[in-house]
Amino acid sequence: MIYSNFSKAFSAFAALTFAASPIAVQAQAAPGATPSNALNIPTDGPSLAQNDPNNRSATAVVNGTIITGTDVDHRVALLVAASQGELPPEELARVRAQVLRNLIDETLQIQESAVQEMPVSDEEVNQRYNRVAAQNFSTDPQQMDRYLLGIGSSPASLKRQIRGEIAWTNVVRRNITPFVNVSEEEVREELARRASQRGTEEYRIGEIYLSATPENAQAVANNAQQMIAQLQQGGNFQAYARQFSESSSAAQGGDLGFLKLNTLPVAMAEQARTMQPGQLVGPFEIPGGLMIMVLIDKKRIGMADPRDAMLDLKQISIGFAPGTTEDQARVRLESFTNAVASMRGCGDAEAVAATIGAQVVGNEITARDVPEQLQASLLTLQVGQATEPFGSLADGVRVLMLCGRDDPQDVQDADFDTVMQEKEEERIQKRAQRYLRDLRNDAYIEYN
Fold it and tell me: Superkingdom of this entry's organism (predicted)?
């Protein structure tokens, strides 16, 4: 695998997000498209279906509000785009069922906001939508409209999701947030606990939990296996967690945040202990069902992470002309390796590279933003040293030379106010989940 540039575009996909709450919309970039975060969006992205805008048949009616088949189709298309391709028919059926449940919850949230006399205005929705568009398509914000239509979705579908999230934020802010209290004693206990655990490891876990009973265990296992296959092919974990996970973490894309292994079920802790950041495992059994898990990151509490070091790198590379034989490539590679070895540090790189027709590109980047397979070797280099050559005949060969390194400082312990805010937010989220559950229980829902 070639480290072809120093930008953060190591993935072909990036989510469209906004500050208040993330919306999982991902896409591959098109030639000529220059969104600000290099989304690589195709101009002819695959459409989930040829949706007829005149098809408005009701799929569900929630307290008198109609959710149509077209609404479901458009929202499913967003998930399919995030999954980097088409879904098998059986998985598509599960996606549609989950999307319908999400749309029902969204409808209840919008309705509750109106009942509370806090309706969300079109202006608020459009401002948030335009912000998302500008962040991702700065040269042409209207390109997001065309992209959404191109994948079989619509701007209206994304705006409806935005409306639901703003509405629910307003409801929670009025009806829950003012009544959540965390005592000073609880905060002091948490600070003391963290101080005692300084230097111990914490793991940031992403989860997709699927409940199972003896009667449906095999069907759930089959579904989980298919989901794993999609994720291994590049599907977006957060998007899948939001749509499929039955855990309370689904609203955060399955992200449990940093935690210690002794707070996890035994089966999850055993898996996480041997995992490396970015690794996906599952499905495996836990009490009540099956778990799919990814290790997002891990760190030592209160201590600096070497991967946060800022590296000043020079990439020195050569290419091979079409038709180059292996023997010719071997000779050129030997010349390249000898030239790199003769360089007397970064100041000598350009001059020596010019003698063998090599290219030199420099940039600063944190170690964690380098592909994982290169992180360990880069972090062991001294200034002026280079990695071993890597690459291929097709993509060229290169080395990375370390020209400077700023190591991170030890992490400062969280202060009183930060811990207070964290614990308040945790309680707000739990009460918000109960509030939504009560809305579901009281709702009058008809299915077509």
Answer: Bacteria
